[in-house]
Amino acid sequence: xxxxxxxxxxxxxxxxxxxxxxxxxxxxxxxxxxxxxxxxxxxxxxxxxxxxxxxxxxxxxxxxxxxxxxxxxxxxxxxxxxxxxxxxxxxxxxxxxxxxxxxxxxxxxxxxxxxxxxxxxxxxxxxxxxxxxxxxxxxxxxxxxxxxxxxxxxxxxxxxxxxxxxxxxxxxxxxxxxxxxxxxxxxxxxxxxxxxxxxxxxxxxxxxxxxxxxxxxxxxxxxxxxxxxxxxxxxxxxxxxxxxxxxxxxxxxxxxxxxxxxxxxxxxxxxxxxxxxxxxxxxxxxxxxxxxxxxxxxxxxxxxxxxxxxxxxxxxxxxxxxxxxxxxxxxxxxxxxxxxxxxxxxxxxxxxxxxxxxxxxxxxxxxxxxxxxxxxxxxxxxxxxxxxxxxxxxxxxxxxxxxxxxxxxxxxxxxxxxxxxxxxxxxxxxxxxxxxxxxxxxxxxxxxxxxxxxxxxxxxxxxxxxxxxxxxxxxxxxxxxxxxxxxxxxxxxxxxxxxxxxxxxxxxxxxxxxxxxxxxxxxxxxxxxxx
Length: 531
Fold this sequence. Notes:
By secondary structure, this protein is of the alpha+beta class.
């Protein structure tokens, strides 16, 4: 049996093993942590010849994550006036693998903290990290450092503390008592109780999840000599991460009358890495406020009880030149609604929607068709096009799996090339057949250009037309085969299936499926004509 990432290992600290075991018993988190690890492992690997559809398959394992990522792609950070993005495949093409890795990791992790926040303290900690990430983004823009890396480094800087707050509540309370009663700082108090400091714990967990070296190292505080002699980009990222978190610790824990003095102390400490004057710091805080509001709403952070209290809101400025007021908190609950291309609830998945079709799914299909149309008008690759079509078929029709199979140019063989859904990694190496004059549904589809919609593959007369290779690999009771022909030559087919019997596509949805196939044919023809 393959070991999960939570399995104990003699090379890990006991506290790390305890945290990972506790996560495994917590609802939902094993799947999330495995998704984090899988995405980071794939996108951090030296392998470079995988397609966007491979990454899309990993992201689509989590429906909530898919929806979150689409909303993030269409936020003001990325949109830049272009048409909305409606497919994960297209989002990956536009953002690039590194940005998807960072966005997926931070979004999944934040969802976990938000969903398990049993105390006000944890809610505030998660929200503070979120805001620190946004503020770090602003600093990185000013210093011309990679904004995505800076943002996620700052957001994850206190990972170790958060995990202890969540999964080791008694130990967290004991650490707080050690600090209050013995005057210890947080690193020494956490090490006394856990045997390792919060940041050491966070770094080990991050390494387990295959986070990049920059993200892992940014969790470590900078010593005085490191602050004075910055040597690498990694040092700058660490500095921004620590600086932004310390600024928000001031905002959340320091009385307003003492805040300006505290800001100056933090700014002085990091002046070699983040050279900001008091006025520049205030301007950055104020400029981040609208985006904090917008993305807090998008990520559904509880606004009325916590986040709005933390929002930075500039007071009205005095008309006298040069007069500046310090930032203050706003209690108004009027965060802007998010820009979104879909109203699909985050808690809903394709498998739980009442009935096989709904307005939400139809919206995915229609938006997907429009996006493919837009893509055909610009430069694109064959794999990008196929990945988008397969994704719309998979998500929009709520299939269990969707696969594009291609004819081999050297021999009469058709094999799976792109796919999404259950067991797809295995099927991409085994799903296929040798083209012949046999009368099974697959050979008929690719030799006489006939569509098939199979409602029940286990009853006659269909049963006798199902080949043995299919019985051995998938054997789904309900499936479709849509052949792709150009100039009377079969290039392959689109396949999708369901685990239950019944019509795989209702009559009133057939036009959508035909449109998607037509778009694929048009896209292939265009690529050929441009050679």
